[in-house]
Amino acid sequence: MTSRIVILGGGTGGTLAANRLRREVGDNCQITVVDTDGEHLYQPGLLFVPFGRADPASLVRSRAQQLRRCVGYHQAAADRVDIGARQVHLADGTVVPYDVLVIATGAALLPEETDGLPEAMAERRALTFYDLDGAVALRDALAGFGGGRIAVNVVDMPIKCPVAPLEFCFLADSYFRRRGIRDRVELTLVTPLDGAFTRAIASRELGGLLDRKSIGLVTEFNTGQVDTGSGQLISFDGRAVGFDLAVVVPIHGGQAYVGRSPGLGDALGFVPVDERTLQAKASPEIFAIGDATDLRASKAGSVAHFEGEVLAGNIASYLAGQPLSESFDGHTNCFIESGAGKALLIDFNYETEPLPGHFPGPLGLPLLKESRLSHAGKLAFQWLYWHMLLPGRDIPGISASMTLAGKRGPADGPAHQMTD
Question: Which of 117, 201, 342, 386 sits in a 20 to 30 Å window from 410, CA-based?
Answer without folding.
Answer: 342
